[in-house]
Amino acid sequence: MIQNIEPHVYRNEYVPEPPKEDSVILYYEGRKILVKLEDQEISFLTFKEAAVCYPDIYEDYTYLFSIDGQGYYLTDGIDPADFPGFELKDNQYFREARPKYRQFAAVTGWQLYRWYQSRKFCGHCGQPMVHDDKERMMRCPDCGMMEFPKICPAVIIAVTHGNKILMSKYAGREYKKYALLAGFNETGESIEETVRREVMEEVGLKVKNLRYYKSQPWSFTDTLLMGFFCELDGEDGITLDTDELAMAEWFEREQMPVEAEDLSLTNEMMMAFKHGKM
């Protein structure tokens, strides 16, 4: 999955120390990030490279995280045209970008970039927010309101029925491949209740024997995904929620139209069932 970048080591402790020459700049414009592509691998701008055009680049930054001890930072106020060989790539490109640890850095940084962009003003009193000195938190100096990074709990659900699994396609989304049922946790419900509710809402089925599989951070949507396998409880006739899904269909294990990739929890769960591991 996208977060499995071993042997590289990701550290997300908030340590806002000044950047070094080899520290990495993650520069975003909306859905796009500035990268250089060489021999089918991506790299990012460093502070040393940026300082050639912007000598004061070391004075305005936001610390994000480190990988293998190298710091990654947000900056703004630069012009991508000043850096030949670099280009802005849409975030969907990072579903396949390599090397994997830089793919992970780009997507994780984009989640934090969007959070910082949306937390410039206090939601309680409207005053400008400031960075906290000790935590990754935006604080209102006027009323004391504190804002931490947004993480939304959600479930990925593999509904099985003997040798069959329920696969679906989303309605109205860029992603057109087969997926499993999924949905966000709502206020006041447990994760297990989320599984049962989402299956009933999306395909009109009851499920039983819920088994937790594993979790995944999914920065494309600010989400912490939790994967569950469960069994059909009752009739297998599907009542499709066409607002959420373009289709949903039962597939025999041997006929599942899916191939392995190393990005998503959804794919790992489908492949686990396809190969008889679940």
From TrEMBL:
Molecular function per GO: hydrolase activity
Keyword terms of this UniProt record: Hydrolase, Magnesium, Metal-binding, NAD
Swiss-Prot/TrEMBL catalytic activity: a 5'-end NAD(+)-phospho-ribonucleoside in mRNA + H2O = a 5'-end phospho-adenosine-phospho-ribonucleoside in mRNA + beta-nicotinamide D-ribonucleotide + 2 H(+)
Cofactor: Zn(2+); Mg(2+)
EC number: 3.6.1.22
Keyword Disulfide bond assigned: no
Domain Nudix hydrolase: 149-275
Protein family membership: Belongs to the Nudix hydrolase family. NudC subfamily.
NCBIfam families per the UniProt record, alphabetical: PRK00241.1 (NF001299)
Protein name per its UniProtKB record: NAD(+) diphosphatase
Organism this protein belongs to: Dorea amylophila
